[in-house]
Amino acid sequence: MALGQSISRVESKSKVTGQTDYVMNMTVPGMLHVKILRSTVPHGIIKSIDKSDAEEIPGVVKVVTGEDLKDFDINYYYGPAFRDQPVLAMDKVRYVGDPVAAVIAESVEIAAEAVNYIDVEYEEMEPVFDVLDSMKEDAPIVHDKVRPAGSFADLKSLLPQSGSNVCLHYKLRHGDIDKGFEEADHIFEDTFTTPAAVHLPMEQHVAIAQIDSEERMNLWTANQSPSFVRSEVAHVLKYPENKVRVKVPYLGGGFGTKLYVKIEALTAVLALIVKQPVKLALTMEEVFLTLTKHATVFTMKTGVTNDGKIVARKCNVVWDTGSYADIGPRITQKSGFTAAGPYDIPNVHIDSYCVYTNNAPAGAFRGFGVPQLVWAYESQMDIIASKMGWDPLEFRKAQVLTEGKEHATGQIIHSVGLDKVLDKLDTSLEWKDYHTNRTNGSVTQEGRKIRAKGMAIGLKAVLTPSISGAIVTMFADGSVSVYSSTVDMGQGSDTILGQIAAEELGLPREKVRVVHPDTDVTPYDTITAASRSTFYMGNAIQKAAEDVKNQLFEFASEHFQVNSDALTLQDEQVYVIDDPAKSITIKDIIKGIYKMPAGSIIGKYVFESHYESPDPETGQSKDIAIFWFPGGTGVEIEVDIDTGKIDIVNMVSVGDVGKAINPFNVHQQLYGAAVMQIGQALFEECKYDHGQMINSSMSDYKVPSFKDLPDHSDTIIVEEPHPEGPFGAKGVGETASFGVQPAIANALYNALGVRIKDMPFTPERVLRAIKESEKEQESSLVGSTVEIKGEK
Amino acid sequence: MGDTLWLEPEKLSEVKDILSSGDPEIRVVSGGTALSLIMKQGMFDPNKIVSLKKLQSELRYITSDKAGNVRIGSMTTLRDLEVDALIKEKAPVLSEALTHVANPRIRYVASIGGNLSHGDAHLDMPPILMAMGAEVKIESAKGDRWLDLKEFFKGYYETAIEPDEILTEIMIPKQAEGIVGTYIKYTTLSNDDWPTVGVAAFLKKTDGIAGDSRIVISAATDIPTQLFDVQHIIDGNQLDKTTIQKAAEKAFEVAEPLEDLRGSVWYKKEMVKVHVRKALEQLAKE
Ligand SMILES: Cc1cc2nc3c(=O)[nH]c(=O)nc-3n(C[C@H](O)[C@H](O)[C@H](O)COP(=O)(O)OP(=O)(O)OC[C@H]3O[C@@H](n4cnc5c(N)ncnc54)[C@H](O)[C@@H]3O)c2cc1C
Q: What are the beta bridge partners of residue A295?
């Protein structure tokens, strides 16, 4: 029926005809507009704010500062991991861009103008921008005191460290690392860095807050986590949760930047203060200052034996979480524990540090830290293979985690098709042929352009523990509404979740409608992120639909005097399996139940994961993730050796999705995630000068355009079903993001013998590396010794 | 902002009258694609904007005169130029380059007059037009003057246009028989970015000997720059490997690029060298 069908998106038509409602386009009567004054210094004490000139401008209703908040009985700080972020700067600013004051005015233009008339005097403090400097004992402290938050079960154990910028240190100890390195015949050590980057969804962060006649706070917001926004705004306002209502329509993209509370606490507080509805819409330039992807420094030390086994791996990962922790601590832990890669390694030692700096806050970014890790471990796999003279594909196959093997966390791995992902890369890249026959990169265009291939695989653990609740209501005419707090931000969840309900109820997809998140109506859901919704929410919806089905069967079994398990639901009728002449329509059942052609059948389910919290000293847990999902990337690139510019001629993305509920949607997710990573790999980078971002506009921060797409692309679905997934499904939103960067770096090495360990691979960086390696080759020709790196 | 007065005169003479005060706070706008960006960034806040929107009949045209020169009204859009048959015939390098300028939405509104008057060194039209020896007509209430594009660009966002003046026409002189040309746009960020280096190269080949060469680089430097020293190496010589190599080396030597987000001084010098070479190699083949 609906399952496995590439049904087109339910919202396609309304989007392409411009009918879709976005918060950006919404207005409510009497609405005022907000503009933010942001800190111009990276670290400092606010000595004074003079807002009198701004408040005199006609049309300005009020200018609000942190000081003004003190007149209200509210909580000033919020945050998903630690409550370290103020609604508006309270006394201190921590990065260039920190919100210091908010102007509320009758128009956006007036508010924007008035911002220029606020005078702030700062007493500057020494800032720290380099994440490694920030870990030093004498570093300036970004937060004197950190308040833990309490919203998420997995974060309760993450206690912040005080008196240091290291706000979280996650440890994993598996086997005996020293013994492992002793057993190794060769040891390799490399450091890989990733810069900060931004998500840039088409729609900026935007929220409207309105207090209604019941004195309840109503929020319309472009946000990926309505349930969290409700509870966190309730915390800030000191309201009970049922006095905060959060509604989320379609999003114009999210990618992680719209998770947790971004502008919602401020918008709500301002509405409370002026007692009028307010709208805050960030400009694209402000989006750059709101959240970034974590910049990382990852040092990896690996011991291998002569017969091709990895016996020890030590990982030191440092995450620059910027001025506010946001979800950095969870990334540090949950992605941190995957840092050693999808391999069966007996001795693993991981230290993962979440570190404050005076940079813009960093948080979730499609892949949730995993791409930063895969970039390092998959680059090093090729470094080792090349040094040892091994085929990098065979080297991977020799240790890849397969069914029943133990992951470094101590969990026994099941339902991950990593070996199949490698097989698909092998055939689609024609790897064996390429690897055996190549001398070096193949030379084209009179020797000025060189082609070569590369690959990488990665593995991510889905967010665990987490919760998804769903209600499925069947109306008297047999049509169905699904109440879910999953946000359709462009990934197609409305389509897929509806398909799951339709499949369970034997209905055509058109009979099912998915209701958009409205916390008054749709049940709690942890977040729309982490590739979790098809699995978690899909499960909740499937089981809520099953609840409806059971109620239909209850009536039918009495009606036909048979057991429920003798019944089946198909084509909007319940049949007796062995006697299909006996059937009753859904409508007739409902009429039968309520003795009138009205009423509804309500099914509900709350899906919770099982979970074992990891040991704080060793990071070990038998049940750390409810499912794991692997992905792989293969590329063929062409490098211009005169300019250093990389062109991707072919890109293959392979993902194990368990079961493709909607194959076309799955292909789109794979392709989209991979394309997004091309920008990260080749040219995206937030550039700062003394904490000030100097390319915070789309004129200077470029993202991939149609002209940057690979000439040829393939997306390949692997289906290794998960016993607990709805119809076997896992997640797919991030799968193809894992391997793009190292696959390109590995191809670059195969083309020219140059190894780049810092991203992005801009033409200039590549050209420098080419020139340096030419120099090295020349000097090795005259007999000087070249240091053999990584050898014991 | 907000207090800016928006004017839409219907005659060129009216525009000149409005500008005659010479007040630098009064700004002309054509397509608005460049001006709106700098206004949004708060870099510029004029108190009067004079739109040329209603001067289509006076300023939007592409013709050729008796001498065979191409004459383009300043309000001609980039899209007009891109698809125009006369331009395709007389200045095919321009038509080709336009397909890589911004995107169709921008090209449909952006004007050639605005493109030149903006004085931004990262644009693609100036080096090509300069290499083709184009001249511009600048008008004011005081009178008209013609200026060679070589003297037009003065610095970063700075041109020879005075506050009371307006650019009305671009004249591309008839190119001599046997002239070949090319333009290379090289980007380092996404492929639809503004160029990091632009190289326009035009020359005449007579029995394999190059002459009358015009090599203009842009984007890497603060204004489009004609490389006369490089031209000296080319002119009078066979366009062979040795000449091309020498010319490219010379370009590296004389180019004075500025470091920015798109590359360091070293890298941009390298890219000037590489793309002067690539441009000449292309012309050698034609
Ligand atoms: C997203 C984007 C991408 C772009 N990519 C490219 C690219 O790849 N390559 C490229 O070459 N360009 C690119 N551009 C620039 C674009 O070509 C210019 O913005 C455009 O040509 C300017 O023309 P306009 O008519 O819109 O100028 P306007 O914005 O109207 O004016 C620009 C300036 O010129 C002045 N001016 C305008 N007309 C006159 C006149 N007749 N006389 C005197 N002064 C005048 C104005 O006062 C203003 O200072 C891009 C622009 C955008 C927005």
A: A320
Tell me the per-residue pLDDT of A714-760, one tens digit each, with 9 for 90 and over: 999 999 999 999 999 999 999 999 999 999 999 999 999 999 999 99
CA distance A141 to chain B (A): 31
Our CA-based measurement puts residue B203 at a distance from the nearest CA of chain A, in whole angstroms, of 24
Give the closest residue (by CA) to ligand 1 atom 14.
B102
Give, in order, the Cα–Cα distances in Å from B263 to each of A16, A359, A772, B157, B220.
38, 23, 18, 20, 9
Looking at residue B45, its pLDDT comes to 87
Q: What is the dihedral of CA A388, A394, A400, A405, to 10 degrees?
A: -100
**pLDDT per position as a tens digit, A729-741:** 999 999 999 999 9
Class of domain B56-172: alpha beta
- Ligand 1 is surrounded, with C-beta below 6 A, by B 27-35, 37, 52, 74, 101-102, 106, 110-111, 113-115, 117-118, 123-125, 161, 166-167, 194
pTM above 0.90, yes or no: yes
Using pLDDT thresholds of 50, 70 and 90, give the confidence band for residue A779. Answer: low
The 3-state DSSP class for residue A15 equals helix
Nearest atom (ligand 1) to Cα of A699: 1
Judged against a pLDDT cut of 80, whether residue A517 lies above it is answered with: yes
Indicate whether A497 and A351 sit together in one domain.
Answer: no
We report the CATH number of the domain holding residue A238 as 3.30.365.10
Q: Could you please report the per-residue DSSP string of A512-578? A: EEEEPPBTTTSPPBS-S-TT-HHHHHHHHHHHHHHHHHHHHHHHHHHHHT--GGGEEEETTEEEETT
Task: Please report, for chain B, the start and end positions of each structural domain, with discontinuous segments joined by +.
Answer: 5-53, 56-172, 179-285
User: The tokens of A97 are what?
Assistant: 């861009």
Minimum CA–CA partner of A641 in chain B: B274
CATH code of the domain occupying B179-285:
3.30.390.50
Mean predicted lDDT score pLDDT of chain A: 95
Cα–Cα dist A597/A91, whole Å: 63
How far A709 CA lies from chain B's nearest CA (Å)?
10
- CA nearest to A693, candidates A125, A354, A195: A195
Residue A571 shares a structural domain with residue A631: no
Nearest atom, ligand 1, residue B115 CA: 21
Sign of CA dihedral B277, B279, B280, B284: positive
- pLDDT tens digits, B183-204: 999 999 999 999 999 999 999 9
Q: State the total domains in chain A.
A: 3
Contact B144, B164 (CB under 8 A): no
Q: What residues contact residue A440 under an 8 Å CB cut-off, 6+ apart?
A: A450, A452, A750, A751, A752, A753
Per-residue pLDDT reduced to its tens digit, A478-490: 999 999 999 999 9
A11: Cα within 13 Å, side-chain hemisphere: 25
For residues A155 and A269, give the distance between their C-alpha atoms in angstroms, rounded to a whole number: 26
**pLDDT tens readout for residues B50-90:** 999 999 999 999 999 999 999 999 999 999 999 999 999 99
Domain that holds residue A238: 12-16+39-125+199-290
pLDDT by residue (tens digit) across A135-183?
999 999 999 887 778 777 777 666 666 789 999 999 999 999 999 999 9
Contact A327, A232 (CB under 8 A): no
A579 and A679 in a common domain: no
For position A156, what pLDDT does the model report? 65
The topology under which CATH files domain B5-53 is 3.30.43
Interfacial A residues in 631-670 facing B (CB < 8 Å): 642-643, 645
Which phi and psi (to 5°) does residue A122 adopt?
A: -115, 150
According to DSSP, the β-strands at B62-64 and A77-78 are: unpaired
* Chain-chain contact of A679 with B190 (C-beta, under 8 angstroms): yes
Catalytic residue ranges of A: 734
Q: From the CA of B257, how far away is ligand 1's center (Å)? A: 22
